[in-house]
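tool_call predict_complex ligand=S-adenosylmethionine
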Amino acid sequence: MLSYRHSFHAGNHADVVKHIVQSLILDALKQKDKPFVYHDTHSGVGRYDLTHEWSEKTGEYKQGIAKIWQHSMPQELDSYLNAIQVLNQDNALRYYPGSPRVARAQLRKQDRMILTELHPSDYPLLQQEFHRDRQVSIYQEDGFARLKASLPPKERRGLVLIDPPYELAHEYRDVVRAIAQSYKRWATGIYAIWYPVVNRYDIDDMLEALKGLGINKILQIELGVSPDTNERGMTASGMIVINPPWKLESQMQAILPLLKQEIAPATGHFKVEWVVPE
Ligand SMILES: C[S@@+](CC[C@H](N)C(=O)[O-])C[C@H]1O[C@@H](n2cnc3c(N)ncnc32)[C@H](O)[C@@H]1O
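tool_result ok
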């Protein structure tokens, strides 16, 4: 079943947190000249037109990127905001970069990216977005299967972004299994797992299962826009980062209060916590 379409959600508060964390990790990898790989298991289409009827229908980006993109923000957000700026030259917010476009804006000539997208409508759009780009490899395959086949990468440095739709209950377990397999093949890679808080117990279960893998250095970063509830809908989202760059914790400690202030001043909440410390 592939019913999830990211176009409805592009640029929402969850994308903002996800892509900020992603861009900070890539900034850290760029501190060294040695090449790195960016591997995106669930890529989407790479760029979203916010005037599309699906984006307009939900208007989610208005409560996300639209709240911050032209505000004065700390320098740490430069790479992320630059990825948006280059798609919107005339100062109007029309396009929002998906995770592959955010990453592509940060790649140097020695770096490469691997993208997987299974959806039969989204895959061709992703291919078109990176047409003839020799630094980008794109597969219409299961993201977890391609990850398993690609590790360890020849560069031995890099970031894996795992961003499934979580439409099916087993996807939480799939993530844990993928981490267990991947870590055996490549223990020094950086893994960033995006998660939505729809039912808090799904996240608690996933964190417990990750703790049980015996992996050190797992950091949880979360921004909520309203308190947890038993009603339907996403109230918060976050990233679970394995082997985070050393500055990520303090960077997000500084950035999250600003995001809360802009996006959900009255009901927002945030945390940066070690699930498993070093
Ligand atoms: C949350 S969206 C990705 C958004 C993207 N990472 C971003 O930040 O711009 C999840 C994507 O995963 C795709 N997908 C679902 N199951 C998949 C699978 N098994 N392998 C690869 N892609 C899958 C969906 O079609 C959807 O485009």
